[in-house]
Amino acid sequence: MEMNYLSRKIRMMKGLEDITESDNLFIEIYSSQGECLGRLKPINKTLAVDPDIIERLMKWRTMYMEYFLTQFPVSFERTSRWLSEIVIPQDDRILFLIYDDRYQIVGNFGVCDINVETAELDNIIKGETSKTPELMFFCELALLNWIYRDLHIDKAILHVFSNNLRAIKLYEKAGFTKGKFYNLTRISNEDDIRYVNDNDGSEGEYVDFKYLEMVLAKDEFYRLHPWVKDIYKC
């Protein structure tokens, strides 16, 4: 699979080719019983400037700030600039809004560093309550199926703080296994905090948790969740 195919696919989903068509693009979220639980809708150029969407992303980022490598005071301007200058124009990343079966927006789920070999799950946040307890789990499976089936990528990865046990449990349930652990140091500058890999030679204060890489291959995913192919007509 060539990188230009992936770029075109991502650009289409984000409305960089046809904004009208992108309004109708989404990934449905199904349970193992075939019940539609909601959908994943990519943030396109229209949604990226929607004040309500920006406010939601601000709130959710603030709620889970402690689990990000970079931590800072959230602002409308900074979030808007992140969407317009990073999320939308970069062809190797995409951010989805999570809608439940009542069409209420309850969180976001992203993919970054997309290339012909791997894609990384990123910005995984449930920001609102939902009547479906396992919505995030099935949301994760829907997105992984899209990565493997539609993007034709053979391996998904993610990174998570080793003390974020709830998230790790969710990823392991999907089939991810623990890989490399990276030592971290914390660098504080006024209101901002950055956690960096200590192998980079950066100065900072060592912390008592690590940065964990987790991996899930395409074949293993479908072995663990064979129903996905039937439900999603793979």
How many helix segments? 8
Calculate the mean pLDDT score and round it.
Answer: 93
Our measurement of the CA-to-CA distance between the termini, rounded to an integer number of angstroms, reads: 18 Å
Structural class: alpha+beta
Largest sheet: 10 strands, mixed
Question: Are there runs of 5+ residues with pLDDT below 50, and where?
Answer: none
What percent of the residues sit in helical stretches (DSSP H or I)? 25-40%
Order of helices and strands: HHEEHEHEEEHEHEEEHH
Radius of gyration: 18 Å
**Spatial strand order of the main sheet:** 1-2-4-5-6-7-10-8-9-3
- Principal-axis shape equals globular
Estimate the strand proportion: 25-35%
In short:
By secondary structure, the chain is an alpha+beta fold.
Helices and strands in order:
Layout: H1 3-13, H2 19-22, E1 27-30, E2 36-42, H3 51-63, E3 70-71, H4 76-87, E4 94-100, E5 105-112, E6 118-126, H5 135-149, E7 155-161, H6 165-174, E8 177-189, E9 192-197, E10 205-217, H7 218-224, H8 227-231
Parallel strand pairs: 6-7
Antiparallel strand pairs: 1-2, 2-4, 3-9, 4-5, 5-6, 7-10, 8-9, 8-10
